[in-house]
């Protein structure tokens, strides 16, 4: 049961989120928002809880953000859920995370489908435990026709690994005579990434306060705007998501160009 304090905080956030949503210009909403969900472990440590409790709280924080994305008109939301480096964490933590991924997806898939959210996985899904892999494969198939929001979960994902895999694919095509070496350009690499149909992120959000990209979407975030908050991910709210969108709308994107005078 939620505590009275927690209930009041949730009510305040809902009211604040509604007022912020009203300020968002629907014509200038970023099409693709990517999120580095950092701080679950610190959140748990601050409360004297096991790390997995922090991950569970972080999983719960995803729901209002997905809701906020659909309300604001974001079309793609990519969440950094488990990196290719995370396998080096303690075995019990990794096993707990895999079970949590499966549990949360199976619990939420009906609601995601009802909200017309399409679930996709970005990364080497074939290397995940069979139960987790099967759950996400089923979720992808069930929601593949949904069009309101694409929820992309980066699982067993690393930006360098993705670029290496793309490079290997292009090199194999060249070695087999199916591609000229001189045809390997920026567009060819982009087309060989894990999900080439997904547009590059317009906005990268990071919770937890650290100013780094942590091997996330290294190719795709070349010109993404960044918004960092010191809030740990389990405390991140729908209102925080809207604050990031409003900050994005106040920026002028140049893509490396020099603004003309006059």
Précis, in short:
The chain is α/β, with parallel strands linked by helices.
Verbal overview:
The protein is an alpha/beta fold. It has a domain at 28-157 and 202-249: 3-Layer(aba) Sandwich (Undecaprenyl pyrophosphate synthetase). Helices cover 46% and strands 14% of the residues. It has a six-stranded parallel beta sheet, with helices on both faces. Helix 5 links the parallel strand 3 and strand 4. Helix 1 runs parallel beside helix 8 (238-249) and helix 3 crosses helix 8 (238-249). The model is unreliable at 1-5 (pLDDT under 50).
Descriptive tags:
single chain, 262 residues, alpha/beta, Undecaprenyl pyrophosphate synthetase, 6-stranded parallel sheet, 8 helices, globular, disordered N terminus
CATH secondary-structure class of one domain: Alpha Beta
* Largest sheet report: 6 strands, parallel
Output the strand order for the largest sheet: 3-4-2-1-5-6
Instruction: Tell me the strand percentage band.
Output: 5-15%
User: Span between N and C termini?
Assistant: 60 Å
The CATH architecture name of one domain reads 3-Layer(aba) Sandwich
CATH-assigned homologous superfamily of one domain: Decaprenyl diphosphate synthase-like
Q: Which structural category fits the helices and strands?
A: alpha/beta
Question: What spatial form do the alpha-carbon principal axes imply?
Answer: globular
What proportion of the residues is helical, as a percent range? 40-55%
Low-confidence stretches: 1-5
Number of strands: 6
Q: Which oligomeric state applies?
A: single chain
Q: Averaging pLDDT over every residue, what do you get?
A: 93
CATH level-3 fold name of one domain: Undecaprenyl pyrophosphate synthetase
Number of helices: 8
């Amino acid at each position: 049961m939620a505590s009275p304090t927690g209930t009041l905080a949730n009510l305040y956030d809902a009211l604040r989120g509604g007022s912020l949503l009203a300020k968002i210009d629907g014509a200038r909403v970023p099409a693709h928002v990517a999120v580095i969900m950092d701080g679950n472990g610190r959140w748990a440590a601050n409360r004297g809880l096991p790390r997995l409790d922090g991950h569970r709280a972080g999983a719960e924080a995803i729901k209002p953000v997905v809701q906020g994305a659909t309300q604001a008109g974001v079309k793609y939301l990519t969440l950094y859920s488990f990196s290719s480096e995370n396998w080096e964490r303690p075995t019990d933590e990794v096993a707990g995370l895999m079970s949590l991924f499966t549990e949360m997806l199976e619990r939420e898939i009906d609601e995601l489908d009802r909200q017309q959210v399409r679930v996709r996985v970005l990364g080497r899904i074939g290397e995940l435990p069979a139960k987790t892999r099967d759950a996400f494969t089923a979720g992808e198939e069930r929601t593949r026709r949904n069009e309101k929001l694409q929820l992309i979960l980066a699982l067993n994902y690393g930006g360098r690994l993705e670029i290496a895999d793309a490079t290997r694919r292009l090199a194999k095509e060249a070695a087999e005579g199916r591609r000229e070496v001189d045809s390997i350009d920026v567009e060819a690499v982009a087309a060989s990434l894990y999900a080439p149909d997904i547009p590059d992120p317009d906005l990268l959000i990071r919770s937890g306060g650290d100013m780094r990209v942590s091997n996330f979407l290294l190719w795709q975030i070349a010109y993404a705007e960044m918004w960092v908050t010191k809030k740990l991910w389990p405390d991140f709210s729908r209102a925080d998501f809207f604050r990031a969108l409003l900050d994005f709308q106040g920026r002028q994107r140049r893509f490396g160009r020099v603004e003309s005078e006059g």
